Amino acid sequence: MIRSAAQRFVSDRTWVIRLLVGTLLVLAIGGLVTLAIKQGVVRWTLKIATGPVLTSRADFLNTVTKIINEERPMVQLKRLKKDSFSASAKAMEDGEADLAIVRSDIAMPSNGLTIAILRRDHLVLIVPGNSGLTGFQGLAGKKIGLLKTEFPERNESLSRILDGVLDYYNISHDQLQREFLTLDEVGPAMAKHQFAGILALGPSGPGPISKAIAAIGNASNTSPKLIGEKQAQAIAKTIPGTEPNEIDEGAFGGAKPKPEEALNTLAVTLRLVGRHSLPDFVTSEVARVLTLTKARLIATSPLARDIEAPDSDDGSGLPVHPGAVAYFDGEQGSLLDSAFSVFYLSSILLGLLGSCIVWLFSFGEKGGANDGQIDSNRLIVIMREARNANQETLDQMETEIHDLLARLINQGKVHAASLPGIIAIAMRQVELQREKLHSANQETSGPKS
Q: Residue 3, Cα to own-chain centre: how many angstroms?
């Protein structure tokens, strides 16, 4: 097999030249494409499934898109609007989206890895300042209101997290009455002392929790208290999608900023996740764009303010995309560096390919030369032995000479300068010996005297 391949190399080298030229063209085209991507002429289009958090705050993603157009990074985003976080997660699992914005406690796609944390929502129980309630373990026999949002899946998740906390303290769900209240209903309900407190899940800073604090304070004429969860680290292990976190002192603001001291509690996260099959440099670029967005919008957009790097050790147990890790750790390589690596690897492969081709050429030429030498030696032997050969041996020698000639023609070696002469001499020697034998036979078989 190797011999036949070598013979083909030797006999037809045109396709080898085409192979080398084609390889060089592929590398050249790859280099041009790399530079085009680097300059933003060609960009990697990513489909991003956005849940209700960005449907209601479309200005944030519009600004991200604007920054992408200005900075001309290696990626561009194509939005797929979804009605829920569950739908966003499913879009990624079904291959409809490359990226998705999801919430950790509602639905995480099985094929998604975290690229960035967009926001943390904290679990807080807000009670009047004169309340004797100090923790979730004292909720048995009470009635509390759950701060309602316009999104059913978030309300269901809040109720589910509350159930998880009650289970941790071995409190039967039937021992606690609950009712969902809108923000407008909080103040009047608390003024009538219908609820022991309001349970809310939301971001720190201005937002639904800070508004609920103000409403309860006005209704009770007291400075409300915030109850977190001291056992958050242990409880988070029992409620999927939650993690322990600390709310900074004064994070919710107000006339008397709340909380009055740092507060430990449970938290859930809004995450940007990407398919695990996305190349690292693509997710690194997405992380870079988000960081740039945060720098541009930190003073105006709550979403931009809350963007942070993911941490695989945050207690959530949710995996992080290695491309994002590389960017946030400062180890992101540029696309041009990647291209140089490709060219370097390609040069090594081409060097090996060239060495193999040279070896095959030399093998074929060496093998052909050896074959020619063997054939020449055999012809010389035939010339020497033909002088004393009998008729049968001469016939065999003549057949062998014809075979040698055919083989040399097939191998392309009939043009060797010495071979035609050697063949002619060998054939002449056979003929001379045949004539000699013929004469001898005639003398032997002649008339007797």
A: 43
Q: Is 378 helix (H, G, I), strand (E, B) or coil?
A: helix
Burial of 400 (0-12, 13-18, 19+ CB in 10 A): middle
Mean pLDDT, residues 289-316:
75
210 within 8 A of 254, measured Cβ to Cβ: yes
Half-sphere exposure of 284 (CA within 13 A, CB side): 17
Domain ranges within the chain, ordered by starting residue: 99-333
Q: What are the backbone dihedrals phi and psi of residue 62, each rounded to the nearest 5 degrees, phi first?
A: -65, -40
Alpha-carbon torsion, ordered 329, 290, 281, 271, to 10 deg: 80
What is the distance between the alpha carbons of residues 28 and 18, in angstroms, rounded to a whole number? 15
Is residue 259 within 8 Å of 252, Cβ to Cβ?
A: yes
pLDDT in tens, 209-234: 999 999 999 998 999 999 999 899 99
Give the residue-averaged pLDDT of 114-135.
Answer: 92
Q: Tell me the per-residue pLDDT of 386-423, one tens digit each, with 9 for 90 and over.
A: 677 777 777 787 777 777 766 766 665 544 445 566 56
Structure-derived torsion over alpha carbons of residues 168, 173, 177, 180, reported in degrees to the nearest 10:
80
Which helix (H) or strand (E) covers residue 113, if one does?
A: strand 112-127
Tokens coding 240: 């999927």
Cβ atoms of 175 and 140 closer than 8 Å: yes
Gap between the Cα atoms of 231 and 266, Å rounded: 9
Given 1.10.510.10, 3.40.50.300, 3.30.1510.10, 3.40.190.10, which CATH number is that of 99-333? 3.40.190.10
Q: Are the C-beta atoms of residues 287 and 328 closer than 8 Å to each other?
A: yes
Determine what percent of the chain falls in helix, strand and coil, rounding each to the nearest 5. 55, 15, 30
3-class SS of residue 245: strand
Q: Give CA–CA dist 165/138, Å, rounded.
A: 12
For the ranges 72-81, 129-138, 153-162, 256-265, the lowest mean pLDDT is seen at 72-81
Contact 175, 142 (CB under 8 A): no
How high is the pLDDT of residue 325?
Answer: 87
What pLDDT score was predicted for residue 366?
Answer: 47
**Which tokens hold the place of 76?**
């561009």
